[in-house]
Amino acid sequence: MKNILIPTDFSKNAKTAIDYAISLYANVNCTFHILHSTYFINPESRTHITPHYVNKVKEEGEIKTKETVSKLNKKNTNSKHNFKCIICDKKLSIAIDKSVKENAIDFIVMGTKGTTASIDYFAGSNTIEIVKKIKSCPIIVVPDKQQFVTPKQIAFPTDFSRFYDDREIEPLKSITELYTSEIKVIHINKEGSLTDIQEYNKELLSNHLNNFTFSFHFIKDNDKKSNSIENFIEEFKIDLLVMVNYRHSLIENILREPVIKKLIFHPKIPVLIIPE
């Protein structure tokens, strides 16, 4: 049984994330936990907002969450799936972390943006904040209006600077096993050749993936790593990008680039981010 957490603010983007998760795990026994944060962003700084209004918005959020889950359960025809609601008055990142720990969550699936201006949700930068702060669970970021595409081709960028343990590689394996996918390991080649340590880590990664179809691809460094990855995604028709988020990692470097909007802020394909 998988436990999947899906934050929602009832926007179309949040619905897209729900639909993607349902399709991704169509053949897996799953409980989908639909999370809504009723946390209000600093209402004291907005003199026109009264406590009554804040309470009203929170109550409406609770009602909508329960209605959403009720509709999902009624509409559901998959005997492997069921839906539960979680309502939390904490900041979204805290609500997610709390929900992950209390419900043994395996994956978080979320959109890149929401439409609720007054409620703490993923207004772009919030997605980045969650990626940075959530260290206990892998996150799948789903693009706006994304139609489900079977993730047959998976890209996994790495600089081979460290070895990956079983826990870090497990989410990649888990998704790969669902559809017998092919993993394309990308190394953005800055040095021209690998060091002895990089060669060693490359060999360890090969051992991790030896039960899967995988290949190594070396691409030139053009100073904007996210651009290099984007080009690779288009050329090889990649369906899912997988990245491990650790200190000084490739994704950490990309998070410093303005072009991050193209990869995580406004991704063209879903992105699976695995915490260290």
How many strands appear in the DSSP assignment? 10
Order of helix and strand elements from N to C terminus: EHEHEHEHEEHEHEHEHHE
Number of helices: 9
Using the coordinates above, name the CATH class of the largest domain: Alpha Beta
Pfam families: Usp
InterPro entries: Rossmann-like_a/b/a_fold, Universal_stress_UspA, UspA
Domain UspA: 1-143
Family: Belongs to the universal stress protein A family.
Plain-language structure description:
- The protein is of the alpha/beta class and about 280 residues long.
- It has two domains: about 1-140, HUPs (Rossmann fold, 3-Layer(aba) Sandwich); about 155-270, HUPs (Rossmann fold), CATH 3.40.50.620.
- It is about 40% helix and about 25% strand.
- The protein is built from nine helices and ten strands.
- It has helices at about 10-25, 50-75, 90-100, 125-135, 165-180, 195-210, 225-235, 250-255, 260-265, and strands at about 1-5, 30-35, 80-90, 105-110, 140, 155, 180-190, 215-220, 240-245, 270-275.
- Strands 3-2-1-4-5-10-9-6-7-8 form a ten-stranded mixed β-sheet, with helices on both faces.
- Strand 4, helix 4 and strand 5 form a beta-alpha-beta unit.
- The chain is elongated, with a radius of gyration of 19 Å.
- About 40% of the residues are buried.
- Mean pLDDT is about 85; it is low at about 115-125 and about 255-260.
